[in-house]
Amino acid sequence: MKITTTTTKKGRINLFADGEYQFTVSALFWAKNGCPEGGTLDEDALFALQAEANADAAYDKALRLLTLRAHGEAELMRKLRRDYDREAAENAVCRCKENGLVDDAAFAAALAEELYRKKAYAPARIEQALREKGIGKEIAKNAAYTLDIDRKYGIIRIIEKMRLPETVTKKEADRLIRRLRAAGYSMREIREVVEFSGAPEEDETP
């Protein structure tokens, strides 16, 4: 098949085979991997070129995402799959890991610290949040429970953020308990910090 190209306004390359549009690649990719204007490629070579272009584009997007903030492997994969097929996304994530740009353990440790510092989450809630990000069970558990957390101080921080009056109503007390339970604290831990009149007696750790 005879290969011809046109250039878009943004400088990207539209690829045509025997006059029929096939796909678009970056100018840099075409300069490195393309064939001369009017050259020929068979169907297999054209398919391989498109797969390589997709993988290259997925890697470029991964780099952009990682420039904005760190990502775990599963989270990065999930975002890339919105625009690229599984093979291209997996190739991009693999390249990022090989280049030291994606490290689930380091990502989990940093996120665990951020969740405690900003939201005063308890270890159980931190582990849950890490799992929701796609971090594996063992890595998430290790990051959450090796973090130096002062549970009483975490509870106090949440109470302070809620800015409750000195004397709280039952409705306000219930709301506070729900907030603290949602942050991963047990009723036993909550009662060690503050007493509630008429509060529930259960002591289940989330």
Number of alpha- plus pi-helical segments: 10
State the low-pLDDT regions, or none: 197-201
Helix content: 55-70%
Superfamily (CATH H level) name of the largest domain: Winged helix-like DNA-binding domain superfamily/Winged helix DNA-binding domain
Tell me the total number of β-strands.
Answer: 3
Tell me the name of the CATH class of the largest domain: Mainly Alpha
Arithmetic mean of pLDDT: 89
CATH topology term of the largest domain: Arc Repressor Mutant, subunit A
What's the CATH architecture of the largest domain? Orthogonal Bundle
- The dominant shape is elongated
Defining key terms:
Arc Repressor Mutant, subunit A, 206 residues, single chain, 3 domains
List the helices and strands and how they pair.
Layout: E1 3-7, E2 13-17, E3 20-25, H1 27-33, H2 43-68, H3 73-80, H4 86-98, H5 104-119, H6 123-132, H7 137-145, H8 151-162, H9 170-182, H10 187-193
Antiparallel strand pairs: 1-2, 2-3
Helix pairs in contact: 2-4, 3-4, 5-6, 5-7, 6-7, 8-10
